[in-house]
Amino acid sequence: MNYERTGECVPTKRRRKSNTDIYHVTAKGINKEQIFNQIRERYYFKKILLKHLGKYDVKIYAYCIMSNHIHIIIRSELNILSLFMAKVLAEYAAYYNYKHGRNGHVFQNRFGSECIETTQYLWNCVRYIHMNPVKAKMAKDVCTYKFSSMKEFQQKKAVVIHENVITMWEKRFDNFDNFLDFHKMQDTCTYQDVAADVDMQMKSAAFVILSAMAEVEKVKEDVEILEDKILREKYLQSLKSSLNISQKKADKLYNYIKKSIMTK
């Protein structure tokens, strides 16, 4: 049985063409360098995005600029997406190198992309990238962070994001309070991100799956799942199938959960 609580998990690892032409794009600082650490740098990257939006047939649906990486949800043909991101990243790299008196690469390899094939996964990705600053303790709540698209949704004012996504948002959520409530929900999806954050996502999802299973099996406490041989085997298999991971990774994740819960 799959004990996922919310969402539709369909992330992909390799570069391929999306059937919807919508992609979750990430770009990371080389060697985990905080290439957007200064507020001015985040403003400048946003300025570059706006500059090139008028030159390419791309539509941004959501974005978030973190200290060492960025997230953007973009609708575009794949070849145009590549051109757009190449121009944006190259211009920012030139600015960053000049500002800091350095040479060489600024970004880790090429940008990453995963296909977004369903409406549900689209909104799950929007929620995930908006929540990045909160989880990283860069903001107290999702509405106070200045360098994500959350304010544009709150104010119904498309600046970086395309006006079409505001219309889509209104049809999906009716009002901003519903959108905020959606951001408070947990899911068991994992999203393209820096390695440490993906690991954190997996661990968080494992706890959600455990709690959901406890509800289905009608046990009073989550730990009872791990104490029962049959139930813990079902939980282990659910980790593997729900998160689409190998048996080795499922075992490692299970041992982390076991240590976290049963040693308290």
UniProtKB/TrEMBL annotation:
Domain of life the protein comes from: Bacteria
GO biological process, one term: DNA transposition
All copies of domain Transposase IS200-like, residue ranges: 18-132
GO terms for MF: DNA binding; transposase activity
Protein name: REP element-mobilizing transposase RayT
The organism of origin for this protein: Faecalicatena orotica
